[in-house]
From TrEMBL:
<dbReference type="InterPro" id="IPR002020">
    <property type="entry name" value="Citrate_synthase"/>
</dbReference>
<dbReference type="GO" id="GO:0006099">
    <property type="term" value="P:tricarboxylic acid cycle"/>
</dbReference>
<protein>
    <recommendedName>
        <fullName>Citrate synthase</fullName>
    </recommendedName>
</protein>
<dbReference type="InterPro" id="IPR011278">
    <property type="entry name" value="2-MeCitrate/Citrate_synth_II"/>
</dbReference>
<dbReference type="GO" id="GO:0005829">
    <property type="term" value="C:cytosol"/>
</dbReference>
<dbReference type="GO" id="GO:0036440">
    <property type="term" value="F:citrate synthase activity"/>
</dbReference>
<feature type="active site">
    <location>
        <position position="262"/>
    </location>
</feature>
<comment type="pathway">
    <text>Carbohydrate metabolism; tricarboxylic acid cycle; isocitrate from oxaloacetate: step 1/2.</text>
</comment>
<keyword id="KW-0816">Tricarboxylic acid cycle</keyword>
<dbReference type="Pfam" id="PF00285">
    <property type="entry name" value="Citrate_synt"/>
</dbReference>
<dbReference type="InterPro" id="IPR024176">
    <property type="entry name" value="Citrate_synthase_bac-typ"/>
</dbReference>
<dbReference type="InterPro" id="IPR036969">
    <property type="entry name" value="Citrate_synthase_sf"/>
</dbReference>
<dbReference type="InterPro" id="IPR016143">
    <property type="entry name" value="Citrate_synth-like_sm_a-sub"/>
</dbReference>
<dbReference type="InterPro" id="IPR016142">
    <property type="entry name" value="Citrate_synth-like_lrg_a-sub"/>
</dbReference>
<feature type="active site">
    <location>
        <position position="313"/>
    </location>
</feature>
<keyword id="KW-0808">Transferase</keyword>
<comment type="similarity">
    <text>Belongs to the citrate synthase family.</text>
</comment>
């Protein structure tokens, strides 16, 4: 029985213990396994290195990283069955629903599908990380009536994704900027999608089912889906000078300003600091800073009028847009990164499992006499 003391939305409720990710919401700090994200970015960590760190708790040695990287590169190709199934999906379908469907199918065709041992789950986690990016790129190509691009084993994870998505190899700056975006989005403690993954894993269901749960949760506009909504908002605003008035009207109508506010951060989201800079730099490189400038004005207006800070989704929107990533691919791109954190959490759940089953505060009628249908 509950004692009536509960928090709607589980705000600040500690649901489990984890060694993977630490957030200080007052100081605006995000730490993966003891390493501050600022240090990982400044220290030129690779995305592959961060995946290894999240999974194993330690940075890899050179040999460990080489072996892991080679394994990821070797696992990038989708199975023929998944590629065939892709062609049966509606071309104008929601990209997150298409991704959720392909991940589910990939589970059925995974050579280790029946092996739900810990080692089997690690093998599947490796394929999930390697193939999430291939799936997202293939979905977009299919939507455009194009064949998927075969992964390029010469390129690292970040550069290969942009190559498979856009058809040309990114320049060095863009490849690194995108890799930093992947690192920044890799994990975030018990956010809604990771929690969904852990709830599923905690029933001792398989890792693909856990990831399908996570993708469903990430899609929502209050979570990962916000990055697409931010770009739609910037386009609706149209030009920087219109931003303050637009925000004023939106807030007067009680609309939520996408890309602002956070359940845990009460200050600047440390990921937004990097993405803001990236948005500026890419705008300058492209010779068009309109969306960066508009974003700055929106940020100032929302801070002044509502006291809210931008979250990770705000500046990732203009950043991805200026990298020529289509808007409906923004949330799938989040999944390309977050698969690293989801799998780390599912593996941790398996290592130290207890069923996750909270209670609800029952506020309905407690006792009624049943009335047979003939008398109603
Ligand atoms: C990767 C990520 O998931 S990051 C988050 C991505 N989501 C978004 O950007 C969507 C916009 N943001 C929001 O909706 C919220 O800030 C959330 C969902 C992220 C967190 O919300 P919660 O912690 O549940 O706060 P809650 O929804 O209770 O809001 C508290 C108050 O702040 C207001 N508020 C919070 N965020 C916003 C926003 N973005 N725009 C306008 N008002 C907001 C609410 O209206 C509410 O005001 P009230 O007390 O006057 O009614
Ligand atoms: O932590 C959260 O609630 C949402 C978030 O920022 C993320 O998942 O990256």
């Amino acid at each position: 029985m509950t004692d009536g003391h509960f928090v709607e939305g589980l705000e600040d409720v500690v649901a489990l213990s984890s060694e993977i990710c630490f957030i200080d919401g007052d100081e605006g700090r995000l730490v993966y396994r003891g390493y501050d994200i600022h240090d990982l970015v400044k220290g030129s960590a690779s995305f592959e290195e961060v995946v290894y760190l999240l999974w194993h708790g330690e940075l890899p040695t050179k040999d460990q990283l080489t072996a892991f990287d080679q394994e990821l590169r070797a696992q990038r190709a989708l199975s023929p069955e998944v590629l065939t199934a892709l062609k049966t999906l509606p071309k104008n379908g929601n990209t997150m629903e298409m991704l959720r469907t392909l991940v589910s199918l990939a589970g059925l065709y995974d050579p280790d599908d029946q092996d739900n041992s810990y080692d089997g789950s690690v093998k599947k986690a490796t394929r999930l990380v390697a193939q999430m990016s291939t799936m997202v790129a293939a979905i977009e190509r299919y939507r455009n009536g194009q064949d998927p691009i075969v992964p390029n084993e010469q390129l690292n994870h970040a550069a290969n994704f942009l190559y498979m998505l856009l058809g040309t190899e990114p320049d060095e700056y863009t490849a690194r900027a995108f890799e930093i975006a992947l690192i920044l989005h890799a994990d975030h403690e018990l956010n809604a999608s990771t929690f969904a993954a852990r709830v599923t894993a905690a029933t001792l269901s398989d890792i693909y089912s856990s990831i399908v749960s996570a993708i469903g949760a990430l899609k929502g506009p209050l979570h990962g889906g916000a990055n697409e909504q931010v770009m739609l908002m910037l386009k609706e605003i149209g030009e920087p000078s219109k931003a303050p008035e637009w925000i004023k009207n939106a807030l007067a109508q009680k609309r939520r300003i996408m890309g602002f506010g956070h359940r845990v951060y009460h200050t600047e989201d440390p990921r937004a600091t990097h993405l803001r800079q990236m948005s500026k730099e890419i705008g300058e490189r492209n010779g068009n800073t309109t969306y960066y400038e508009m974003s700055r004005i929106v940020e100032q207006a929302v801070k002044e009028q509502k006291g809210l800070y931008p979250n990770v989704d705000f500046y990732s929107a203009s950043t991805y847009y200026m990298m020529n990533i289509p808007v409906h691919v923004f949330t799938p791109v989040f999944a390309v990164s977050r698969i690293s954190g989801w799998t780390a959490h599912v593996l941790e759940q398996y290592r130290n499992n207890r069923l996750i089953r909270p209670r609800a505060e029952y506020v309905g009628i407690k006792k009624r006499a049943y009335i047979p249908i003939a008398q109603r």
